[in-house]
Amino acid sequence: MIVRNLTSILGTDRHVTGEAFESRRILLADDGLGYSLHDTVVKEGNEQHLQYKNHIESNYCVEGEGEVVNVATGEVHPLGPGSLYTLDKHDAHILRATRGDMRLICVFTPALSGHEVHDDDGGYPASE
């Protein structure tokens, strides 16, 4: 059994921050589950251009408001508490936090190691 508390992750190597986001990586590849679980905050007013070519990602919004844009179609989908979006076709997308910091619970498969860095396309390399 794995039991963790968000406060135990803050300030560790599982807590990654950037200009536009903060990622608290609760479950990672070394936990051996085949998926990873992240508590991510996208800061209000920020926009990220992303595409995970090697991972499937699902995101469940629990706080704040924003939108996700499907780059291929131009469709804009509003996000708020209770909204879910899944990038099931490795979709290129734009994520925006428009009203308050937007907090997402994110699941990646295959699992991330936690040491990945976004590439030029806004994605991560294939899992090791």
From TrEMBL:
Pathway noted in the entry: Amine and polyamine biosynthesis; ectoine biosynthesis; L-ectoine from L-aspartate 4-semialdehyde: step 3/3
Keyword DNA-binding part of the UniProt annotation: no
InterPro entries documented for this protein: Ectoine_synth, RmlC-like_jellyroll, RmlC_Cupin_sf
Entry coiled-coil feature ranges: none
Record's catalysed reaction(s): (2S)-4-acetamido-2-aminobutanoate = L-ectoine + H2O
Keywords: Lyase
Protein origin, superkingdom: Bacteria
This enzyme's EC code(s): 4.2.1.108
Ribonucleoprotein found in the keyword field: no
Annotated function: Catalyzes the circularization of gamma-N-acetyl-alpha,gamma-diaminobutyric acid (ADABA) to ectoine (1,4,5,6-tetrahydro-2-methyl-4-pyrimidine carboxylic acid), which is an excellent osmoprotectant.
Membership in a protein family: Belongs to the ectoine synthase family.
NCBIfam families membership: PRK13290.1
Name this protein carries in UniProt: L-ectoine synthase
